[in-house]
Amino acid sequence: MPPTRSPELEAVVRRILRAYAANDSSTLANLMSSDPAMRVLGFDADEWWVGREEFLKLRETQAREIGSTTHLTVDSVEAFEEGTFGWATAFTTIRQDELTTSMRTTAVLRLEAGAWKAMAWHNSVPVPNQQVFGVDLTMTLDNLVSALQADVTDVVAATGAEGTMTLVFTDIVDSTILTEHIGDATWADLMRRHGDAIVAITEENGGRVVKLLGDGSMLAFESARAAVRAAVGIQESVADEAYSVRIGIHTGEIIRTGDDLLGLTVNKAARVASAAGPHQIMVSSTTLDVMGSIPGVSAGETRIVTLKGLSDAHQVTSLTWS
Question: What is the pTM (predicted TM-score) of this model?
């Protein structure tokens, strides 16, 4: 059974957050697992609590030290369940006297005796990537489009591929949730293997990797058929992984005038990717028209969608493969 959205879990997470702010120990004790493997991570580097009792005891001490009322507003919660396990992300606003802080929470929950209990809980306060890494990092498809403009110019210059090209965007779905769930070290190893696979599959199909940025990539091909074959290969390479990938493909004119590159094709390829779902390859109508017949690949559902930053409606089609 695939994961499903869980309003019940979302309600549980809201109750835990409110009890946390109110220092309601009885509610927290009722909603957190008594299993010794239960863990809580807080804001500070030393806030690593092992087991429910240790967390509750130290939380009460902290509440006395703070000494004033904490007002918490739950801005949004999203939770999913699969069998006896569930996971959630939440965004909240904390007001403490004159100080207002945004907080993000990730949680793993388990069904115990018919009730959901928190097994892992992590609260964090977002800080700029510049502060942590010393550089700004690409975080969304929007950022990826901007970051890639110069690199696409380099690809065009290097390959002499001015004219029509097919661009492929890949994006890992819900990467933030998965990173929190499996840990940074495991996630880094997965991403290294995923990046190696993308490079190998792209080159095998005659394309070039324009950029690998975190959980996303952009690939360039002179052939729409080759781009689709590469996309299928990438999806097949992650079929047994703990994460899913969405892929968007668009074919269009790449025109370089001096140091400038016309970005409509780049932008639309990224937007087509944003219209795809987990484990899905989505192509624009242009790519569908020019890719022709590919053994083992067929057109699936066609939808009319609006794409952010682009006027009019656009036709996109999902692909199926065997």
Answer: 0.53
